[in-house]
Amino acid sequence: MNKNQKTAFITYQPTEPEQKAIEAFRESRRKRPSAPRMKKIGREEPGNVNIDVDHANTNVGYELLYASLATTSGDFANGILAQLGNICPDEGGISLDGLNFCLAVVDGIKPQDQLETLLAAQMAAVHCATMKMASRLVRAENMFQRNHAELSLNRFTRTFAAQLEALKKYRSTGQQTVKVEHVHVNEGGQAIIGNVDRGEGE
Fold first, then answer.
1. Which residue would you say has higher pLDDT here, 132 or 43?
2. What residues pair up with 85 in beta bridges, in sequence order?
3. Using an 8 Å Cβ cutoff, are 61 and 81 in contact?
4. Handedness of CA 160, 161, 166, 167 (dihedral sign)
5. Which residues, at least 6 apart from 170, have a Cβ–Cβ distance to it below 8 Å?
């Protein structure tokens, strides 16, 4: 960024529609803080990835995470993290960007109970598979690859639409009440993805 660009950036005044959009965004963030991101911690071994909430206070971070997953169960939260991590592979473990994207999708759906969280996680998984097939379709080098990608893409998009309808129907007919209370996590607590031995205090 050159000097003129820096000056333009500093002196720019949002238009009235932009300012309204910014205020609405900030108000939305104040009403419902986003779930914290996850980060890798510690030494990794083949097939194992240790992750923790990326928050200044571990307890607060996990409470926000649990609230976004509409649960008070550590087993449920760890299970969702592990399952979402498994669909976001990367060299040496999982793609943290992929996992955080999936968690953001779940958080954006704003599940009201664990059933909605499960459906939201499945929707995130189907969306990822859909975009992967879309990428393969545009990169197909022969008719077989094109047909396979196109068929899978159509199936995934129909599945996602069905999931969305199921969520709307459940919310319109179900009577679910969620009360998220204080969830205590010992300082240094962490979620673990992979086959690892839990030490004392975990």
1. 132
2. none
3. no
4. positive
5. 115, 116, 119
